[in-house]
Design a protein that fits this description.
two-stranded antiparallel sheet; 74% helix; mainly alpha; 2 helices; P53 and DNA damage-regulated protein 1
């Protein structure tokens, strides 16, 4: 007869959910990085213009090209840091899940 520890099962499911959420978060950050890269390329072609329209959190505003480029580069740095944090957390969660799966029931 096999006995299953309900607490271990709940912990396993919880870890799996967190892992899934972190993977999705990384996908979102990576998409945002691709969008930023695309935006920077477009801005490089518009260097002769003084100002451009920018969408920031559902708000359209006119901004200088140089300022927009600076903001995008800052966002890229932020995204890199966040991706690294999430990857570290993901690694820790995966290790916990592996230990739990290898545990004798």
């Amino acid at each position: 007869m096999i006995y299953i520890n309900i607490k271990d099962l709940e912990t396993k499911v919880s870890l799996e959910e967190e892992i899934y959420q972190d993977k999705k978060l990384i996908e979102i950050y990576e998409q945002r990085k691709r969008d930023n890269k695309e935006g920077l390329k477009a801005l490089e072609r518009l260097k002769e213009r003084d100002k451009v329209w920018v969408n920031v959190d559902n708000l359209f505003m006119r901004q200088k090209v140089e300022e927009t480029i600076r903001c995008i580069k800052e966002d890229e740095k932020y995204l890199e840091l966040e991706i690294e944090k999430v990857k570290e957390r993901l690694l820790c969660l995966c290790e916990k899940l592996e230990v739990l799966q290898n545990k004798k029931i």
